[in-house]
Amino acid sequence: MTNNTGKLTTRIFIKTLIIIHLSLIAGPIAFACFAYFQTQDAVIDFTNTDDSFLLIIPIFAIGAIFMGNLIYKKLTAEISKIAGLKQKLMRFQTASLIKFASVEAPALFSVVAFYMTGNMAFLLISVVLIFYFFTLRPTKVKIENSLTLRGEEKNQFNKLDQPIS
Asked: Which residues pair with 43 in a beta bridge?
């Protein structure tokens, strides 16, 4: 069932968030494929102590994911104080974008390091980050649990094709 009025519905919100998620994950995947096929003589080397990327990439990845999760939890915790389901969903979308970006940035950085050095260890880190990114795919259940919706807001959220006010 399509919504011809241009109003936001739960179904449209979820589809929009999924499209954003998929488009953000497409960048690291496409760049990783490009870098892999363009790199000659790629090797896995964890022993090169002169390569500062071996220290920087994992710290950046862990730090970015930690900070993204921290900001996400802070923003979603504040959502319960906001009146109106539409405003809650917009704040949730912002929190989700921050969380997605906190995984996408280190994944891209890892691919850049692989492309520059030819060390497959960085591509491996990027692949792990991309798999983690896939687990962040938004679903109706995840959104509902994150927002801790109750009462009328929960009923309104569960009516997928009804405009949200």
From this structure: 119
**Other CB atoms within 10 A of residue 71 CB:** 16
**Residue span of the structural domain in which 69 resides:** 10-39+52-145
Distance (Å, whole) CA 84 – CA 35: 45
Buried b (16+ CB within 10 A) or exposed e, 106-140: bbbbbbbbbbebbbbbbbebbbebbeebeebebee
Residue 64 lies in a domain: yes
Task: Answer whether residue 3 shows pLDDT above 50.
Answer: no
Q: Is residue 152 part of a domain?
A: no
Say how many domains are in the chain: 1
Question: Does pTM top 0.85 for this prediction?
Answer: yes
**pLDDT at position 109 over 60:** yes
* Tokens 């390569």 found at: 51
Burial class (CB in 10 A: 0-12, 13-18, 19+), 5: exposed
